[in-house]
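Morning!

This is the sequence you dropped in the shared folder:
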Amino acid sequence: MKVAIFGIAMGIPISVALSAKSSDDQIECLAKNMYFEARNQGTAGILAVTAVVLNRVNDSRFPDTICEVVKQAQTRISWLNKNKRYPIKNRCQFSWYCDGKSDVPKNKELYNNLEGWATSILSGEIDFIDITDGATFYHADYVQPSWAKMKERTVKIENHIFYRWK
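The structure's back. Tokens below.
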């Protein structure tokens, strides 16, 4: 079974196909990213962060699945097992994934709500509209990363500024 996500970004549909067996993992990855990247924001902030993940899945310059996008990082080889790689602290696309802190959500009620949102988005139960105009990058408004000047700013939502390729 394939599930598609549809949204509108500058009039272009967003579509992500998930196989039935991997959908639980993809839902969890998306829900955790929503939680750790935007739990202190309103609906628009949460959906904007979600749009970036989905836009990356649809961009050939990024990995092909939600989990691969969320967990994308610079890695190092394990000293115990040369076939295993670990993310380098603070070298991930989404900071929560390799910040050295627990990846277990503390606010279970909020996490469960976001997991429901992720399920509804990925199952196609609700229409997903990309409010970032195709953004594949964002950062908090209190930092000024060097990469931002090489991207096109699309929108500011809550405390995040969103960008796409120029």
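Headline: The chain has one domain: 2-133.

More detail when I'm at my desk.
O.
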